[in-house]
Amino acid sequence: LVVKALKYDEELIKTAHKIASKGRGILAMDESNATCGKRLDSIGVENTEENRRAYRELLISAPGLGEYISGAILFEETLYQSTKAGQTFVELLNESGIVPGIKVDKGLVPLANSNGESWCMGLDGLDKRCAEYYKAGARFSKWRSVVSIPAGPSMIALRDCAYGLARYAAIAQDAGLVPIVEPEVMLDGEQDIDRCLEVQEAIWAETFKYMADNKVLFEGILLKPAMVTPGADCKVKSNPTQVAEYTLKMLRRRVPPAVPGIMFLSGGQSELESTLNLNAMNQAPNPWHVSFSYARALQNTVLKTWQGKTENVQIAQEALLKRAKANSLAQQGKYDA
Ligand code: 13P
Fold this sequence. Notes:
Number of strands: 10
Pathway: Carbohydrate degradation; glycolysis; D-glyceraldehyde 3-phosphate and glycerone phosphate from D-glucose: step 4/4
Keywords: Glycolysis, Lyase
Order of helices and strands: HEHHEHHEEEHEHEHEHEHEHH
GO biological process, one term: glycolytic process
EC number: 4.1.2.13
Structural class: alpha/beta
Protein name: fructose-bisphosphate aldolase
Bound molecules: 1,3-dihydroxyacetonephosphate
């Protein structure tokens, strides 16, 4: 029998509960340089290190952000950046009561002998990188793997996704970082909501089996699922009540109550849709803190408002606070459109 080190257990549980705290959720701002470039390109701003830094400073320096946001996921470059005035981003986040987090996966590549599916790289050297990120002030981490419903998904892709997430979660915990476990079931496809439920049940079953095998401390993780919805091209649409019903059914069947927080991704849903769906899930008490870890659904209007111009920083920050507050209310089931 392998005896597991307990070095960080208490701290992991504390960090996870700080992030999964009432009325708060995560700001996902960990776009890779390439993805951030696409976002900047959409508003005609050049993808330079300084422009990425300026945009991220706008986000995290929004006054009062910590009332609604408990954690911010950063890309490696951002973890080591500072404000124009010279304060490190890590310091600024901590001052605002926001836990700094870090994306640690190395992205997706084609999975040989699958149905054109992908697998997520980054386990090599992950222990050393996690130790460095902890030293730099990160206290949680994210690993995003994807599952494609139109591609099958094949059993080999599901297993690989689940096993990679479990190995990552164990390694991150070993270094004191709360792992966000994210097998993103993509929105693409014509499948109906029942098919989405079936695939989500399959991937979470595999993920929890391998996390248990790897002795992951469930009290010290956070999940980042996609909501259970019909595919983007399905002719039958769902309303928030139905999305909430299916998503909560999936969670109750697959997720132990030991897990403190479920922080959903927005996955291409509109800003309003993602808020309404979250609000519907919080109409009755849940065994876990059910909240958000949105990127696009928090940032779309912010980017459009900013346009790369200093004179727009304040109104862009107001747009961020508006979405963050709406989702904070939705976390408590109190959002009224
Ligand atoms: P979206 O909310 O834009 O889906 O992004 C969340 C995220 O971080 C995906 O990994």
